[in-house]
């Protein structure tokens, strides 16, 4: 098996396991729509449900097509990630890691959509009037993976052409 598949697979499995374990804990221990301050005025553990995308994007009860959109987007992302992994150089660890993070996050949130029709979010940061929508481990992985991909692509653009 190609090294890129192994590394990305391990990262994907770790992300899905952490994501689903934290969500299971929230479901078992935190009542829906309650807030538990961890660092008052800055960080809460909450239990909210999100029909939308990361950080509450498209989280509206009046639209029902978003579930189909997210299934299609996840399927497309998986195909694209597998294609990029096949093309990745063995030593391009940032690219491979980023792809594994994104894949793990996408699968983690997809599991919620299949099980509940929406995603469990529980990390809630705010400061004064500034408030970031609640998110979860899968969202963190997708964000970090996207940053790693961007860094890998920018690094590749700056590399001198091979002769």
Automatic annotation (TrEMBL):
HAMAP family: LspA
Classification via Pfam families: Peptidase_A8
GO MF annotations in UniProt: aspartic-type endopeptidase activity
GO biological process, one term: proteolysis
Protein name stated in the entry: Lipoprotein signal peptidase
Keywords linked to the UniProt accession: Cell membrane, Hydrolase, Lipoprotein, Membrane, Protease, Transmembrane, Transmembrane helix
Membrane-spanning residues: 65-85, 92-111, 131-154
Biological source species: hydrocarbon metagenome
InterPro entries documented for this protein: Peptidase_A8
EC assignment: 3.4.23.36
């Amino acid at each position: 098996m190609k090294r890129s598949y192994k590394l990305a697979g391990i990262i994907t499995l770790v992300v899905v396991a952490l994501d689903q374990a934290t969500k299971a804990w929230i479901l078992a221990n935190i009542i829906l729509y309650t807030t538990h301050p961890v660092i008052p005025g800055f960080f809460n553990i909450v239990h909210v449900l999100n029909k939308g995308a990361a950080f509450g994007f498209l989280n509206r009860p009046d639209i029902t097509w978003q579930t189909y959109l997210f299934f299609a987007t996840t399927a497309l992302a998986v195909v694209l990630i597998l294609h990029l992994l096949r093309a990745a150089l063995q030593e391009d660890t940032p690219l491979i890691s980023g792809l594994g993070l994104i894949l793990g996050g996408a699968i983690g949130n997809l599991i919620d959509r299949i099980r509940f029709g929406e995603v469990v979010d529980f990390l809630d940061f705010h400061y004064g009037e500034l408030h970031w929508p609640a998110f979860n481990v899968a969202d963190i992985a997708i964000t970090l993976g996207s940053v790693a991909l961007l860094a890998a692509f920018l690094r590749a653009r700056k590399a001198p052409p091979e002769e």
